[in-house]
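Reading a protein record of the kind used here takes little practice once its layout is understood. The reader may check this reading against the record printed directly beneath this paragraph.
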Amino acid sequence: MNRHLTQKLGFVGLGLISLLVVAPILLVIGAIIYNGLPAVNWEFLTGMPRDGMKAGGIFPAIVGTLLLTLGTGLVAIPVGVGAAVYLSEYASDNALTRAIRLAIVNLASIPSVVYGLFGLGLFVLLLQFGTSILAGSLTLAIMTLPVIISTSEEALRAVPVEYRTVSASLGGTHWQGIRRVVLPQALPGIITGIILGLLRAAGETAPIMFTVAAFFLPRLPQSAFDQTMALPYHLFVISTQVPQMPLKIQHGTALVLLVFVLSMNLVATMIRSYFRRRREW
């Protein structure tokens, strides 16, 4: 009886701890929805900012965030997954590869502002890309690479070795086995890593502050070498730099950014679930 009572008390304690963790998040989301929903309308989503960003819409910031996320994905996904395939399937276990893995883990813990300063020095000044979408996307891609590489490598290593053995026994080359057998089976885990990286990139402020984000730019970018507004930096600006900014606009911008991130997460979850159902182990 004491053992069952202890088990029940343990479950109750774990439930209370979970509630303490989740409740503040739900309260923050609820406050954002409650205060920001009155500001969200068609003009707010599709209009240009005016009157010192105290009126109009946030359409340039939405487009800028989409472009930066897309640019980050175009650079980080092939490089990150390719590096994971090499480390998992081709590289031998020696001091060099162990040092590379340790460096990847350490890079994942570097503050984002350091990546922003690195992007400023390399892409904006040295390579003379200027403060542009290209410089911002490359900076965010470098920041997300450690997450994508680490999670993708773990997903590839989780595929049972029997799949590789059967592929080789049927006459397939090493690359054919990776491309047709290992990668499809590891795809749910790879997608998880990609989404974790892109979600971090979509919500970061410090890296884009140095490399791409404009304080006030009521027009859409025309090329990859143009500046653009972005939702995270725009939210920072209207919350700290613009006096007498209506509170509902601040919360409305936060709500749009929240919906953007959650939508990406939802789509990725659906894709991951689809491939997970097709997985054979």
Summary: The mean pLDDT is 88. Strands lie at 49-50, 55-56. Residues 44 and 137 are 26 Å apart (CA to CA).
